Amino acid sequence: MTARLKKALLRLRLFFKSIRFRLTLWTAAILVVILLAFSIFVYYRQTQYLLVDRRAQLQEQAQQLSPLYRYVGMAEPGLPGAQIPDFTSVGSQVLPAGESLVFIVPNGSTLQKIGGISDGAIQTLLQLWVNAGQTSDPLTYESSPVGLASLNLQNRILYLVSPVFDERRQVGLLILSSPIDPRNQLHTLLVTLLLASLGTLAIALLGGYWLAARAMAPVHTITRAARSISETDLNRRLNLGSQDELGELADTFDAMLERLQAAFDRQRQFTADASHELRTPLTIVSLEADQALARRRSIEEYERTLTVIKSENKYMSRLVNDLLTLARMDAGTTQMKFEPLDLSDLALDVIDRLNSIASRAGVELHVGDFPVVNVNGDTQYLTQLITNLVENAIKYAGGRGHHVRVETGVRTVAGQPVGWMQVEDDGPGIPAEHLPFLFDRFYRVDKSRTRQQEDGLESDQDKELEGSGLGLSIVQWIAQAHGGQVVAYSEVGKGSTFELQLPCLK
Ligand code: ADP
User: Fold this and answer.
1) How many CB atoms lie within 10 A of CB 371?
2) Which of 87, 405, 451, 495 would bridge 426 by S-S if both were Cys, CB 3.0 to 4.6 A apart?
3) Which of 396, 404, 433, 477 has most ligand 1 atoms within 8 Å of CB, for mutation?
4) Phi/psi at 218 (nearest 5 deg)?
5) Is ligand 1 within 6 A of the CB of residue 423?
6) How far apart are CA 180 and CA 160, in angstroms?
7) Is the confidence at residue 329, as pLDDT, over 90?
8) Tens digit of pLDDT for each residue in 26-76?
9) How does DSSP assign 278-329, residue by residue?
């Protein structure tokens, strides 16, 4: 098979599987059912109409003809009305072509028979007449040919058996027969219906295909656009701009792209920030080592170099740990062991541990109320959260303020108990414009407090303040993983308060 033929076959297969094709096919199938039902209805109604019409005509004919037979066979020949009527002179108006007439006298002999009616049919009709109780009213019977022939009403005959009376008694039976549809109207109707249906179906197929193609056009636009959007080109949008369902789909798609782009941008920024953060201490270590090795140094100088290297190493370890924690959080592989615990217990443990660091920084740690705050949480992660907040308070208050206060409690929000823990300091405070970004990764308020570049001119105080800007984003993530949040309030010059809010166990 040539490649071309294969391609054509594949295209054909795809076409048959396409929504466009299936939609057209469904439309056509529904239309076929409707047309069929409509045709059957029209055909049936026309049949009924013809039957009623033909019956009325035969009855009228019988009424006209009966008086002509009133004295036939009864009176003396030569008397008026004693002769069998001769229709050859009257012509076809009385008995049109295709119709038959039979006159039978009471002794059963047929006095007149015009037309193609068979003797068998006459016998059957007589029998039916007798069976029906020989009423004085005319009766009609309908012949039903078997098989396919019955579909064509031209083959179906309507018989009328009408008694003929003189003044006193019945003097004979007049049998009239006529095809129900002598002019073959039903056949014409059938052909008309068939042609009209086929025409409608053809138009519907073409129209349906065109409509489906039109309706599917935006889908192709979406598909083409989606195909052309690569991971590096996420700023492209579909902007379909229509208000319909496909417009909604395109908008959803655009919104998804927006989110993806934001996520990719964050990821890119994160990688850039992380490498930047690591590059600085690595450069410092390298510079310090180079300097120390350039010539022989005194013991004090070597000690200073090693101290710098140790502190940079400590910073890098912390940074790498934070990065790992964040990477695990992003990957969703963080395993938390939730258990009922008292938030106040955890806070007190952290304060115990950090007391010495606080006094070294010249900060007093105060404890407020510590009622039992029952929450469902992971001890290790919540301890890390509290440590980060208290460490930050000590770190940032250490410059200006001297007090850090930690307190816990329970309040009711919208009928639900919420456990809280506040860490309050009298440090420099945070300007309002920074508060919304405080929990972003690598975000630092005081840019001058970020790590100085390779100049190595930081004071010890600056070194203590060195942070990567990852602490609060980890804090917020842990709080959210517990179904809570951390909020920050601050006033420049007065201090800051960080509050952890967690759903309480009842
Ligand atoms: P870092 O490791 O730099 O401390 P964080 O994410 O913990 O990173 O904090 C982000 C920024 O928020 C800090 O750089 C600091 O500017 C500000 N900040 C955090 N806590 C306090 C506080 N208690 N007082 C003043 N500023 C604070």
Assistant:
1) 12
2) 495
3) 396
4) -60, -30
5) no
6) 12
7) no
8) 989 999 999 999 999 999 899 889 889 988 988 888 888 888 887 776 655
9) HHHHHHHHHHHHHHHHHS---HHHHHHHHHHHHHHHHHHHHHHHHHHHHHHH
